[in-house]
Amino acid sequence: MKRLYPILILVCIAAIVSVTLFSCGKAATENKLLGRWSRVNVDNLSDTSRVEEWEFMGSAQFRVYNHHAGSADTSYLEGTYTMKNYREFTISGSGSEGFPTDANGNWRIIKLKKGALILVREEGGLTFREFTQI
User: Fold this and answer.
1) Which DSSP state fits 1?
2) For 84, which of 55, 63, 88, 117 could close a Cys bridge (C-beta 3.0–4.6 Å)?
3) What is the mean pLDDT of residues 72-96?
4) Are 6 and 14 in contact (CB under 8 A)?
């Protein structure tokens, strides 16, 4: 019976370490990103109208939705995303097909928790995006 305690303690420590390491991994971040995100107008926080939404669909599929003012119409454009590591991903879409070129590039996740997503891109100047999960 005395031999089981050290083995049980080692198994518990290994489980805790593996959960800690894998919860911060690329797959865990991508899992949190999945879904639809509504862009926050940080210039006017009282504006709650949804103008742009980003959707991470898994399997590298990505969509940008645009809501048209004064209409119930919504259009979307498809692109792809690739997770580089647990804090960075790349979005790419064809500008010739109308995909917003300001969405293309390498994005760094600043915050991703409690239904909030804050991203920064440094290509061609600093681009900042803030989203809430729908």
Assistant:
1) -
2) 88
3) 90
4) no
